[in-house]
Design brief:
The structure is a single chain. The chain is an alpha+beta fold and 311 residues long. Helices cover 40% and strands 26% of the residues. The protein is built from five helices and twelve strands. It has helices at residues 27-48, 63-96, 101-109, 121-148, 153-182, and strands at 2-6, 10-11, 116-117, 187-190, 195-196, 201-206, 216-233, 236-252, 264-269, 286-295, 301-307, 309-310. The longest helix is centred in the N-terminal third of the chain and has 34 residues, at 63-96. 22% of the residues are buried. The model has no long low-confidence stretch (mean pLDDT 85).
């Protein structure tokens, strides 16, 4: 295999899964901010279901549109509350963890399994399906507005563009489902827990069943930092998740290399002298992940694994 390293910072795209436990709001702030969404969602949904009666003349859309609109508000509130619960659990774990040493620091920072890390392939399927359903429901309101209420052509074109994005989202769900059906769960075993930033990192990767001979492949250990960034454009304000790669080491699969399903393969990495330790509970989390990408006939194998690298 060929090995290469990079110390150049670069922003990553297409990775929207938040790894850190802290949100842009405090725990109480997220709960309070989500409360109006929950209240408005319940009220609008009950109007749409005709549980709460209003003057029909004041309703300028079909009742099912009101129901969908209320469900969207309610779902947004639940998402904010789930972020608050996750943050609360993380804060409580840090407060309850006692003892010294790097192991205690790691366990206070994240709920690690000291033996290894095994992501669930079905969680990705359920998440992808949920995103598809949520976006479909949300866009149904705008599709009614664009195509059934006499809106101008520009509105139809804009909504049609977002409908194309929806097709891509459902295509991603089909690909995720195909990968889950083809490959079983894979895992990495930790050679030690936790790893030290001052020593080589040895990762033992267990190949999933269903892997055939790859056309090409890469095995990358990278250090990342993520944070929430807010931008202002006129009267619009948007907040989004940013992920930036700090360091990476990559082993490239050669054409003659073989990967046997179910077998374990070892990869050795030597972090840079100024490597940063994991801190998933920080406001700007830093963490390490091991990424495997294998291109082959049929659905490709793509998976990432968190790696505990501490001071």
């Amino acid at each position: 295999m060929r090995y290469q390293e990079s110390n150049q910072r670069r922003r990553l795209s297409g990775q929207m899964t938040q790894r850190g436990s802290q949100s842009a709001l405090s725990t109480s702030g997220a709960l309070l901010f989500g409360l109006p969404f929950i209240g408005a969602g319940v009220a609008i949904t009950m109007i749409g279901l005709k549980v709460i009666h209003v003057d029909p003349k004041s309703v300028h859309a079909p009742y099912w549109v009101l129901t969908v609109c209320g469900a969207c508000f309610f779902a947004a509130g639940l998402m904010l509350w789930s972020m608050a619960v996750r943050q609360f659990r993380s804060n409580r774990r840090r407060a309850e963890t006692s003892g010294g040493g790097s192991e205690a620091v790691a366990l206070a920072d994240y709920d690690w399994n000291k033996r290894g890390y095994q992501p669930s392939r079905w969680n990705k399927v359920f998440k992808s399906f949920g995103i598809g359903v949520a976006l479909t429901v949300f866009l149904s309101i705008f599709n009614w507005w664009a195509f059934f209420s006499g809106s101008p052509l520009m509105v139809k074109l804009i909504v049609g563009f977002f409908d194309l994005i929806l097709v891509v989202v459902w295509g991603q769900f089909i690909l995720t489902l195909a990968r889950a059906l083809r490959f079983n769960d894979s895992r990495i075993d930790f050679a030690r827990f936790p790893y030290s930033i001052n020593e080589p990192i040895l990762i033992r990767w267990q190949a999933a069943n269903g892997i055939s001979k790859p056309v090409k492949g890469s095995f990358t250990l990278r250090c990342l930092q993520e944070w929430w960034e807010t931008t202002n454009s006129g009267n619009k304000r948007s907040t989004y998740l940013v992920k930036e790669e700090i360091w990476s080491g990559t082993w490239q699969l050669e054409p003659a290399d073989e990967l046997l399903p179910g077998k374990t393969r070892e990869f050795r990495f030597e972090p840079a002298a100024d490597a940063k330790a994991t801190s998933l509970s920080a406001k700007k989390p830093i963490y390490w992940e091991f990424e495997v990408k294998l291109a082959m006939a049929g659905p490709d194998f793509v998976e990432t694994y968190l790696v505990p690298v501490y001071q």
